[in-house]
Amino acid sequence: MKGIVFTEFLDLVEDKFGLEMVDEIINKSNLESGGVYTSVGTYKFSEMLQLLNHLSTNTGISIDDLLLVYAEHFFSVLKTSYPEILETYKDPIEMISSIENHIHIEVRKIYPDAELPTFEVLEKTGHSIIMIYKSSRAMHHFGLGLMNKTFEHFNTAATIELEKIKEDGTEVKFIINKN
Fold first, then answer.
1. For 122-136, what is each residue's pLDDT tens digit?
2. What is 67-178's CATH topology?
3. Lower Cβ count inside 10 Å, N or C end of the chain?
C-alpha cells in the first residue's frame, strides 16, 4: 500500500483526534515500519489494518465509518494535488465509470507499483451505474466515501447502495442512482 495512504491517514487522525491519538495507535500496533511513513514508500496493508483497528477501539467508531471519513479527507487531498483529473469530467457518473480506464491509469503513472482495486462497470446510463468492486483489501467503504465526495464535488445528489458479494467485503456491488 502506498505511503500517501498512511501519511494522509495519520494527518487525519491528528486533525480529528489529536497527536496523542496518533502516538497511541502507532505504539499499540506492531508495525514493521515503526510507524514512519513517506508518501512515496510502500508498506504492508496489515499496518493500515492495525492502525484502523486501534483507532476504532480507542474512539468507538466502526472501521467502516472511519474509512468513510478518511475517504472524504483523501478526496480533498486528491482535489488539491491533482485537480486536472477532476477537471476532465463534467459529471459524477462519467467520472466514477472511468475509474478503471482513466483514473487508475493516472495513479499508476505516479505510483507504478500501487495495488489498486478493480471496478467493473456492469451497467451505465446517464443517471445510474452498477459496478463491482474487487480488492484483496476490504476497503469498500473507502471507495464509498470517495464516491460520495465525487457527487458532492459535482453538486449532485445520489443514492449509493452497496451489496456485499463476498462476506469479507473483498467483492462488493455498488448501485448508484442520481436523485
1. 999 999 999 999 998
2. H-NOX domain (3.90.1520)
3. C
The model's pTM = 0.90
Q: Which three cell numbers stand for residue 79?
A: 482535489
- Torsion angle, CA of 85/89/90/92, rounded to 10 degrees? -90
Cα(8)–Cα(4) distance, integer angstroms: 6
Alpha carbon distances (Å) from 28 to 6, 12, 43, 85, 154: 16, 18, 18, 37, 40
Q: Tell me how far apart the alpha carbons of residues 79 and 84 are, in angstroms, rounded to a whole number.
A: 8
- CA dihedral 80→133→161→158, nearest 10 degrees, is 30
Residue 103: CA count within 13 A, CB half-sphere = 24
CA-CA distance, 97 to 83, in Å (whole number)? 18
Nearest to 98 by CA among 136, 124, 75, 137: 124
What SS3 state is found at 30? Answer: coil
